[in-house]
Amino acid sequence: MDTISNHTIPESDLIKGCIEGNRRMQEELYRRFSSKMYAVCYRYASNADDAQDLLQEGFIKVYRNLHRFRAEGSFEGWIRRVFVNTSIEHYRKKSLALSSVSEREENTIENADISALDQLAEKDILEILQELSPGYKTVFNLYVVEGYSHKEIGELLGISEGTSKSQLARAKSILQKKIAQYLSDTKRSYTR
Questions:
Q1: pLDDT at position 185, please?
Q2: pLDDT (0 to 100) of residue 146
Q3: Are 37 and 83 in contact (CB under 8 A)?
Q4: φ, ψ for residue 129 (rounded to 5)?
Q5: Whether residues 55 and 80 fall in one domain
Q6: CA dist., res. 64 & res. 88, Å (int)
Q7: Looking at residue 55, which CATH number applies to its domain?
Q8: 178 Cβ neighbours under 8 A, 6+ residues apart
Q9: What are phi and psi of 112, to 5 degrees?
Q10: Is the pTM here over 0.70, yes or no?
Q11: CA atoms of 76 and 48, how far apart (whole Å)
Q12: For residue range 119-131, what is the model confidence (pLDDT) as tens digits?
């Protein structure tokens, strides 16, 4: 089968071809965006299999809804939003409850030391993120990675803005501890 170069087909032609049901164009769209969108899915999923399921479900939604893309923003941004929404819907369907942290606990939580992240590989960070509970992981991803406000997160997940803030603070606290432990374990393994 012929492979199509990522750079030979203009985005507008790719979109048009996919809307018309052109299989080669659909395959090209998948090739162009699958690795980036898998990374989005993996941040929200419980494991690699769930991420793969979200990836497939997300592309089905992209293909079905391409006619709604209005080119008012970036095409990749539109696709990313489809995948984030697909991941959130998956989260809701599983009926995973977000546990809230009391205001007292929120006030005692220190901010995560993000500089420690510089010492970790992306793969290590993703593995540590996978250890968070689904609620904490979802809020963390929406706020830190996707750039949503606490108000928007509250609306998306059906929680209060305060709950979103406390979930984020708790996620940062847990991540800070896990990263410190990881770095400590890594140092010990190098000094042996």
A1: 75
A2: 86
A3: yes
A4: -60, -35
A5: yes
A6: 18
A7: 1.10.1740.10
A8: 128, 131
A9: -65, 145
A10: no
A11: 22
A12: 566 677 778 888 8
